[in-house]
Amino acid sequence: MNGDQMIILKLGGSILTKKDLKDPEVNYTNLNRIANEIKTVLDNKSNNSELSEPGLIIIHGAGSYGHPPAKKYNIGEAFTEEQYPKKRIGFSKTQNCVKKLNTLICDVFIDHEIPCVSVQASSFITTKNRRINRFNLDLIEKYLNEGFIPVIYGDVVLDDDLKIAVLSGDQILQFIAKNLKIKTSKTNNLQSKKEVILGTDVAGVFTKNPKKYDDGEHIPKLSSLEKIERFDSTTNIDVTGGMIGKIKELLELADIGIESKIIDANEPNAILNALEGKNVRGTIIKRDN
Ligand code: ADP
Fold this sequence. Notes:
The chain is α/β, with parallel strands linked by helices. 36% of the residues lie in helices and 21% in strands. The protein has an eight-stranded mixed β-sheet with strand order 3-6-2-1-9-13-14-12, sandwiched between helices. Strands 5-4-7-8 form a four-stranded mixed β-sheet. The structure holds adenosine-5'-diphosphate. Adenosine-5'-diphosphate (ADP) binds at residues 12-15, 61, 63, 200-202, 205-206, 208-211, 231, 235-236, 238, 242-243. Residues 12-15, 61, 63, 200-202, 205-206, 208-211, 231, 235-236, 238, 242-243 line the site of adenosine-5'-diphosphate.
């Protein structure tokens, strides 16, 4: 992380929660370790006068907090007027669960002296047919300029067509990476270089789901959807799109010249090294020039 860079870090629900459990549970081993790594990077930066103001925004997934209620109530699927009362409860439950997760995550960040500020998507973002159509970034830019680290997360939102929808952390990440404009306090210029890092529970993208198959090949660089189409069909589709959903969002960023990297955040120091611009095993998503 250096003064000319804005880093958008996504921490997957698979990393911060125990995703396979029936009841929601935070993975505190990972959360504490990652908070420590982020704090180390921030300290290294503030001890080096060459490096200027913060440029970090954190997005996290919903994991075992968001997916079960969203799935149970089929949030995001079309429904009839009679079904709306039940859907509203499903929306409320999901919103409340992901908010709880966010509070637990921010508790740990704050314990580590990370100046985070929680930002709730459902209170100001809307979608149209599941894609973001209203998202005012002014406040996030202001927090960043004041040295805070905004923490925003996958949530349920109002949708112009479907009434309610699930908004993935991956889509939030894509929108922010595309649209965020931030000035450095030193130069007052718009920061141009944005970097996107996704910490998940596998070392990037493979030709087959590595959780299920041993014979999938690791893909160090991905530049098109073609490779995705050839993936094993079981490629993890959760309510927000799983690995394929992630890659589609990232290819949109690649189209406008923003590179992203998917890394294994279970690996100690992977997040730290990625934030410091060091080489970490994973998959880079960028278009061929
Ligand atoms: P997160 O919660 O970290 O955002 P997801 O659970 O949505 O991540 O997606 C990551 C998961 O995608 C991995 O745990 C892996 O099992 C699964 N997956 C499915 N297909 C693939 C693939 N071809 N390559 C890598 N991971 C895959």
